[in-house]
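Hi U.,

Before I forget, here's the chain from the pilot set. I'm dumping it here mostly so it's searchable later in email.
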Amino acid sequence: MQFTPRLKAYLMLTVVAIVWGFATPIIKFTLEGFTPTNFLAYRFFISTLLAIFIFIISGVHLPKKLNTLLLLLLNGFLNSSVALGLLFFGIKNTTILETGLITLTSPLLISTAGVLFLHEHVTRREKIGMAIAMIGTIFTIVEPLILNGHNSIRLSGNILVFGYVVSTLVTTIIGKKILKDGANPMTMVNISFIIGFLTFGLVALKSNTLLELVNTIISTDIKYHLGVLYMAIVSGTFAFYLNNKAQKTIEIGEQSLFSYLTPIFSLPLAVLWLGEKVTPTFIIGTIVIVIGVGIAEFKKKRYNSDSRN
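Structure:
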């Protein structure tokens, strides 16, 4: 069987979806041993060491155009310091179940961005589906207030996770432009994580001396270190490289559909491993979001099929 570039992209994105599906429960578990700031500083430190090693072996392939280079640096900051920062602090204060539901809207938001910035086609039915899914997302975000009117911590966590979704949308658009301009996928990953280390390393050192930070990390149980290693190497350098590599071949709207696979792996782990509970409001939010996604994506498939005939 011959693998076409598009099929290779699909396989890479499937692997990414599986890796990132496991990632959110692992983040939640590892945050029991590390604060979000220390976790991110430690995680990006490992990624930076790996980046330096890769640069030594394969060289640093920076874009020749100044505009592309500046966009690469901006993308790196948004992708690591902003997006992952919002995700980690959000997961700390909410559940993996709600995180999974909120991130389900990511493909729909990316499709909307494709219309606004890339002039892609969106039908009336897709717009209706997107609107329904967003209603379900808003319902999920404010669920803590529905269950008990004073759970502001989980509400803030849900808002941060949605901020992560929006940040991912921005980095997807910028990343697509950078890749079209010839940026190297691995260089994009490594620059992003080096920026993340500089950002969260400085933040971590504002409240701890270097010695205190090192002692805190060393004294933490080994099981939490394994979570950091997974996030730095597997969910970090490996998965982000595959994601960038695949993005060079297919459209962002098509790429975003693979995001629907991640909850298949994260939600069962949240219940079976972390012991999270499925609430009636969670079920309602799930039904509304799935209906909206189904309406939007079903019509998209029909439109794409008709346009090829």
